Amino acid sequence: MTIQEIPAGMLGDFPRHPDGEGSVQVQLDPDIRIDTAKVFAVYGKGGIGKSTTSSNLSVAFSKLGKRVLQIGCDPKHDSTFTLTKCLVPTVIDILESVDFHAEELRPSDYVYEGYNGVMCVEAGGPPAGTGCGGYVVGQTVKLLKQHHLLEDTDVVVFDVLGDVVCGGFAAPLQHAERALIVTANDFDSIFAMNRIAAAIQAKAKHYGVRIGGVIANRSVNTDEIDRFNGAVGLKRLAHLPDLDVIRRSRLKKSTLFEMDDADGLEHAKSEYLRLAQMLWDGVEPLDAQPMRDRDIFDFLGFD
């Protein structure tokens, strides 16, 4: 029996298997793979702007003529609302409505078309304190494969919950080709980035995922990000300043590509388009060497 066949509430009885050094993590069905698209997983500290980044990056890919699917991996299911203009039902909610008889579902039950043709799925998650996020991600990819939706997709963007890197919410790394880390030019964001990089490197020992690079977000400067990147072997791919138009775009349930002209808007859109083209063309994998917690504390501390 594979984890995809088990309702979320029964996961506590499932025998877990080791995955990586010193960890016990979710094992996804090895036959459920995404082979027909470029797959990116977006991570970062909670509240850093991953959903904003993911949605605008998805639109940028679509502006390049690519067929894009964005998968939100957060129980809040708010990853795609700037694309769809609403909070769409989650895969786990839809599965519960049919008592987990996935064969009764149609693509239109859980896949929604957003701005500029970006297809949107909210995997969702189990209720707080129960179940496992890895189960939900596995079920979502399984459904997409069963309905042949991935065959018509060029790019898949996983937008992943906060900086949680347990076996469940690290599950997108088992599907991704490149992991992207969103950060700001401050201690907390860079500290989280270091731990996320360590988790990705652990997964890279067993899966094809590699760190693609860092996206600086909500930051006037990038000096601390760049200093840290230089020390551990990471690379900044893009820089999105702290612009008021980005804040307003969330309030308007819109991507930046739908906003009226505002200070810094054209630069931000151009940066997303440049990033999308760079990722499509391919970025070199980064063999980062994350710091120990105490070392990064000293590295980023005051003189």
Oligomer: single chain
Order of helices and strands: EEEHEHHEEHEEHEHEHHH
Helix content: 25-40%
Look at the structure and give the mean pLDDT: 86
Supply the key terms:
303 residues, alpha/beta, Rossmann fold, two-stranded antiparallel sheet, 33% helix, globular, disordered N terminus, bacteriochlorophyll biosynthesis, oxidoreductase activity, acting on iron-sulfur proteins as donors, iron-sulfur, oxidoreductase activity, acting on the CH-CH group of donors, iron-sulfur protein as acceptor
Task: Report what the structure shows.
The chain is α/β, with parallel strands linked by helices and 303 residues long. It has a domain of 192 residues: 3-Layer(aba) Sandwich (Rossmann fold). It is built from 9 helices and 10 strands. The strands form 2 sheets. It has an 8-stranded mixed β-sheet, sandwiched between helices. Strands 1-2 form a two-stranded antiparallel sheet. The protein is globular.
Task: Give the structure's gist in a few sentences.
33% of the residues lie in helices and 16% in strands. The chain has nine helices and ten strands.
